[in-house]
Structures are given as structure tokens and as C-alpha cells.
Design goal:
Length: 604
Amino acid sequence: MCRIAGIIDSSRPMDLLQTEVKGMCTLMAHGGPDDEGFYVNASDGIVMGHRRLALIDLSPKGHQPMLYRNGKLVISFNGEIYNYLLLKKELQNLGFQFKTESDTEVILASYAAWGVESFDKLKGMFAFCLYDADLQHSYLVRDPSGIKPLYFRAIEKHLVFSSEVKAFTETGYIYNEQPDWKILFLAFGHLPEPYTTFSEVMMLTKGHYLIWQHQSDTFEIKNYVQQHSIKEIADYQEAKNAVQQSLYASVKKHLLSDAKIGVFLSGGIDSSILTLLADKILTGTTELSKLNTVSINFEETAFSEKVFQDIVAQQLHGNHSEYTITPAFFSEHFPAALKAMDQPTADGINSWFVNYFAKENGLKAVLSGIGADELFGGYPSFKRMGWVRHLKRLPQFVLRKSLRLKKASLKRSYYLSYHNTVGEYLFLRGIFTPDEISGLLSCSIAEVDQVLQSAVIAPLPSHLKDGERASWLECNLYMQNQLLKDTDTMSMQHGVEVRVPFLDQDLLTTLAATDYKLKFDGDRPKSLLIEAFSAILPRAIWDRNKMGFTFPFQDWLKKDEHFLHSIKTGENTFASGMLDDFRQGDLHWSKVMALYQVFTGFRV
């Protein structure tokens, strides 16, 4: 995992481009503390930069940008390819030779063998730029699950790309503030892809590649993901066996590393399963390869999951470390966590702290349970989709009257009057309602409606059943734009790679072939996942009430007057009234986090 950046522009001096790409990489040095490299090709006006976080092939041979075939192919790569050893063997059988032990060289050889069709053969998390000197093409490529970010600007016959939005400010191009970002942010609690705080900067769609043609300075964006047929799984026992085998294989692949790796153990179902599987895989290996687990706790017992963490930790054969975050420690480091944000988010602070302790523990990579709730039905939204179906049948004027109600969950019914993907998602997970956004931004509700109804969001497939619809929304909006983006940003601030075994492509293929009733119609949330691992998962873990990993933000932020006073609401009495509500315990902390970024001024 690394940070990448680059500029393609034949109209500007190359030394200037080099200076700007150097600045982009320096700004992102936290994400690649182990090495730095650059590639320059004046004939095609391209400069590529790379900051390296070394996990596979720690030797200097893994240096990037990496050249292949006498410099005819060049790559700057961020991520991990988990099937690279299998691909390498296949390529060796075809006559390809390798100089390194890295997965980066396998990407280059795969492209040399199969062209753009090679992108679909890669299984892992990745974002990279690949330059083909013979074809005079450059490709920006992003993994099918969108685990790794890749932002770009492609206008006026030039291309700029980066792993972080802030890095674009190191270039000499003009960037304008996206006029609607505050409306989108206050509604979603994040900026949904492809939007950023800059009008000119977009996120590359997952599972797609951008092909830049140097001769004409034009580009196209294409989907590279092929549909792979698999026999439908309609038997419950068969589904359990398939999930067992797929997740075990996924964890084994995700443990592949030449540097110290571990697992976040929260004490919940998902992290406990990953931990127990990883321990089983690594037991009997060398002391250096033993499993490392990291747990976070609080002095506030209502938020502590220590009792459940200990149940799992007692079964392990590796090294378990636990840390307690006190209010004083939080206050000391909270400003740094706020500053670390790359894009506005109402969450993400907890990820900064968790990865801080992973770094303290000497870990360079950790496994996370992101994806399990979204794929197996762990959220309340899976039960609420029936409400969506029924409420959408109401006349539009009835739905629009819901803004007059006092309860926030009922007021969000207004969003269902949109009759689009955005409406369904915001009904389930919206932060502020349109009347609140109107009051906070001093604009009309009609303006809020127009922005949200016209937002460029992928349409929710109409054929999906309730559980599948909830899973699609949670995966493609909440997980995609909130969890994965926040996790990447905050983990890389500490030079830590977070791996997500539940998003392994083989496991996703298995789940896509599994009958939706087997996944979502159990007698409790995530029944299929629990039953698949009931032999190793302690009953106390799966029989507990769902808690979710969260900090005591409500209490901590309410006492942080420095933070609250920094929210400059000016003459906006509606916003200042919300701050008063928070002080009195009548407003959720995530809304105050959103107010801070809107009114204190997120640095776009």
C-alpha cells in the first residue's frame, strides 16, 4: 500500500511538472514512509510519482515507479494483489521471467501478456497508473470493490491523478470549489463518489479504467469487470460450507506479508471470526509470523468491549495488545485527527485512533471486518426495507408533509418523495433532513431537493429483493463512501495498511451466487455468517447485543468547549441553536462533526 500521483501534460515544462508531482508526493509522505520515486518521460509529457509503504518484497527491488520491458512499461501502484503468486506461476509457464518478488512486477507482466484484459485477473485492492510507451497510452485502474481511492482531473488536454484530493493543490492548475458539496455532505455525512470538494476532481469509478491517449490528449473510461458465472447456491448447508471455505481462503491470502501484520479485535462477530481464522492459519509458524491482535477500550464501561475481547484473546497463540483511550488522550490527539481528513466526513475519527495504536504496536498492515454487516445483513436497514416499500406507495404530498414531524427518523420519510437511489439511502441513513440543510446553509428546500435529486449516483437495480436492496445501498453508498474512504485516509496517516478479507472477490462471487433468503432471512442478523463459523465462534460473542465499535464522542465532545467554540456559526441562529441542543444532549455527535466542517471551513 502506497500513495501515487502524476501529471500528463505536454504543454508545460517538464521541470515544472516534476516539481509539482514531487510536492504532491511530499504532501502524502505519511502514506508511503519507506521510499520515494519518480518517472519522467518528456516525449509523452508524463511524470509519475510514488511513495512506498513496503509490505511485499521489502528489498530495493520493489522500488517504484517500476519499469518493465526495457522501460516500455511503467507503473506506480497502490495496493496489494493477493493472487499474484498464482498469476506469476501462470506467467512463468508462458515464458515470462521476473527480477523481483513483488506483486507490482506481476501486474506489469500480466499487462504485457494480456493487455487490458489483465485488469480483471487481478484479485485484491488496487489503484495504479500504468504507462505503455509503445501504444502511447496511460491507464488509471481501480479495483472492483473500490477499496483503494484514485482521484483524477482530466480536462483541457491534461490529466492529473492522486491518492488524495489535498495533493491536487500542489499543482499549478486552477481548482474551483464544488458549489453543492455542503448540501451533499450534510445529507450523506460524506461526499458520495464521484464528487469531491473540487468541481474539477472526481473519483474514478470502481472496476473501471481510464485510458489516456497521449497522441490526441483524449481519454475514455471503461468497465473492465467480466461476469463470471457460478452455480447458484440454494441449499443452506452448501451455503455455509461455501462461506467457510471462501472466507478461510480469503484470510489466508490477506495474511500474506513480509512485514509485521495483525488484526483489529473489537470483540464483535466479524473481527472475532477473522482473528480466530488468522490464528488457526498462523499457529505453528515462526515467532515472527505469529498473529498480532490489537484491541481498543475506554474507561467508560458502556463503550468497553473488553470482556468479549478477552474471551477471544484467551484462545489465541499469538501476541495480543490492548490500549485504553482516556478523555485526556483523546483531547490531546483530536486536533491531529481532524487535520488528517482528506475529504469532509461526519465519522472517521475512531479510525485515526485505532490505527495510531496499530502503528504503536509496530504493525504495518492489519485486517479489518469491514464488509460483513453490509454483505450478511448486520444493519437495522435490512429490516427497514419493508417500510421503504410501503412508504413509497404514499402520495408525494403526504411524504413531503413528514418534515413537519418532530422525530428525525420520521422526518426522513421526506426523502422517499425523490423516488431515486439517493432518496432510499437518505431515508435509511441521512444525517440532516432538507429543512435542516436549508436552515444551516440559508438556502431554499427546493435548492436542496434539486441537488439531491440530480446527484450522479448509480441507480439501484430494480429487480433486487428487500434484503438485496439494503445490501446494495450499504455496500455501494455507506461502505464505499464512508467506511472505506475514512479507513484509507486515517490508516495511511500512520503508514498502516488496512486489509478487508470480507471484500475478497472470490467470497463476493460466492455470496452473489447464494440465494438471498439464505443470506438475509435468518432468525437473527448475520445468521449465515454465524452458523458458518459456529464451531469456532464462542457463543458469548454471537449471542451478545449488537454494539458497533464507537467512541464516547457524545460525552467527550460535549465537554470540549475549545472544539465547540471553534464552530463559527456567525449570525446563523439555526446552526447556533443546534449547538445548544448538542450541549443539552439533544443532538447526535455526528451532526456536530458535520457542523464543524461546514462552518469552521473545511480546507478545499
